[in-house]
Amino acid sequence: MKIALISAEAYPFSKTGGLGDVVGSLFKDFLKKGLDVTLFLPYYRITREKYYDRVEDCGILYEVSIGGISKFGGIRSAKAQLDEDGNLVLTPSKLGNIFFVEHNDFFDREQLYGTNYGEYLDNAERYIFFSRAILEICKILNLRFSVIHCHDWHTALIPLYLKTLYKECSCFEKLKTVLTIHNLGYQGVFPKEKLELTGFGWEMFHIDCLEFYGMINFLKVGILNSDVVTTVSPTYAKEILRPEFGFGLDGVLRKIQDRLIGILNGIDYRIWNPEKDPYIKKPYGLSNLEDKIKNKEDLLQIANLPNYLESPLICFIGRMVSQKGIDLIVEAVPTLIDKEINFLFVGTGENYYETKIKELQHRYPSKVSTFIGFDEALAHKIYAGADAILIPSKYEPCGLTQLIAMRYGAVPICRKTGGLADTVENNITGFLFENYSPDDLVTAVLKFVEIYKNKKLFEKIIYNAMKRDFSWEKLSLKYIELYNGLHQ
Ligand code: ADP
After folding, report:
1. Is 266 near ligand 1, meaning CB less than 6 Å away?
2. Phi and psi torsions of 30, nearest 5°
3. Closest Cα to residue 418, out of 153, 184, 178, 150?
4. pLDDT per position as a tens digit, 137-149
């Protein structure tokens, strides 16, 4: 069984959020389990800067026509292996198990998808090129896979390319396709004029194919044309069949629901391990939980809130976008500010939400600290130092934050939706609230504060949370079962 994972990002090569974490961890876990797996990624500037000396130019030039204009691309490759400690080690190789699609105009940019002011205007072109480049590379190098596993809208045209433009190509015989939806809120919707760039004809511009309310929709194409569609938690797999969560695709998903399944994400327990985390002040585990406080002390210093060791420290870390419930936080914090709680908010996102969060700090400088930016090391310190992590999402396909938080004994306070509902047990491993309302959030936080004050009860929750197993080691078996099932 030969598996290809195709994604717009994968940690440690590129990452903006959960997609990168998930694909990177899956790849590593498959390698560990001895699966024959190949990863395809764009060769972004950030990837080149970090890995240029560990990849080899395959010396192949291929052509992709984008709207009648020839675009030539390159390909870099490396052989990825795990060392004794489970670290990913890359060796340059012309025919390795990682391929980076190279096209400087498209991928040699500061960011992956866009700037603070919006998405890059040529994202359709960029990911059409990426998708077709992979199929060209498979043809040239005669790479034959049993399953191509596409992730999110960026790669969702591939199943349709395989049924049309690449139908006659012998290297794709007996191939099955899987598409994973990591977040239905991002579908790759573009003006219909962009159809010309895909290589598909206008006869495909209809409601059972590319058309979506007069536009074209990449994710819809993937949903309709993959052998199996997965999403990242069982609850989210049910929620997206409803108009409230479907972002206009619930009808399409209901149509294919017999081949739609929810597989819960895991986290990499080597990267997220409080006992051996190089980023944190003092490693700790269940046997020396008392050392967690040293990390809280450290985090309070970093956050410039040094005198509040006794008060509960509640943190938010994530993208500052409407999905993550920032507006609930903004409304709830003033109500909670007299309750001897300290808050630390970290993330990047839309200017509007970043500003709202910064305003909280200006209003309550002795209680609220903020950091606008993406900082991997700080993320580790937050999980290790926080008493609780706030995740009041409007919707949450799976969520990794609560899984990491539980691993570090930072109690998650979450809205009961999607993967949050599947992974956090109310009053046992964290706190859940039902309605998307600031009042419900306040109630959940106050419940947490009450428990926090009772050392024994609080430690019991931390203990329960840290004992849960959300490792990929266990959870990736579901994907392997799925791949095997496709070829029976
Ligand atoms: P999403 O994929 O919707 O952004 P997830 O909860 O699935 O949310 O994954 C978020 C991941 O990104 C977690 O690993 C989280 O720690 C990390 N993360 C989010 N924002 C930041 C940030 N500002 N700095 C560092 N890591 C971040």
Report:
1. no
2. -65, -40
3. 184
4. 999 999 999 999 9
> What's the rounded Cα separation, in Å, for the pair 141 and 62?
11
Query: Cβ(374) to ligand 1 under 6 A?
Result: yes
- C-alpha distances in angstroms, 358 versus 325, 337, 390? 15, 15, 17
Which among 14, 151, 271, 319 is the best mutation to test ligand 1's pocket, defined by most ligand atoms within 8 Å of the CB? Answer: 319
DSSP state of 59: -
Rounded Cα–Cα distance for residues 93 and 68 (Å): 33
From 400, 402, 408, 475, the mutation candidate for ligand 1 (largest count of ligand atoms within 8 A of CB) is 400
For ligand 1, say whether the CB of 347 is within 6 Å of any of its atoms.
yes
Q: Centre a 10 Å sphere on the Cβ of residue 334 and count the other Cβ atoms it contains.
A: 13
pTM above 0.90, yes or no: yes
Distance CA 404, CA 382 (A): 10
440 pocket-lining for ligand 1 (C-beta < 6 Å): no
Q: Mapping DSSP to helix (H, G, I), strand (E, B) and coil, where does residue 436 land? A: coil
The tens digit of pLDDT for each residue in 307-317 reads 889 999 999 99
**Residue 292 CA, ligand 1 centroid: distance in Å:** 22
Classified as helix, coil or strand, 246 is helix
Asked whether 376 lines ligand 1 (CB < 6 A), one says yes
Looking at residue 323, its amino acid is Q
What domains appear along the chain, each with residue ranges and CATH number?
2-267+473-486 (3.40.50.2000), 286-470 (3.40.50.2000)
Rounded to 5 degrees, φ, ψ at 463 are: -60, -50
H/E stretch holding 313: strand 313-317
263-287, pLDDT tens digit by residue? 999 999 988 999 999 999 999 999 9
Ligand 1 atom 21 nearest Cα: 318
Cα–ligand 1 centroid distance for 18 (angstroms)? 6
Tens of pLDDT, residues 377-402 = 999 999 999 999 999 999 999 999 99
Q: Which of 425, 417, 421 is nearest to 461 (CA)?
A: 425
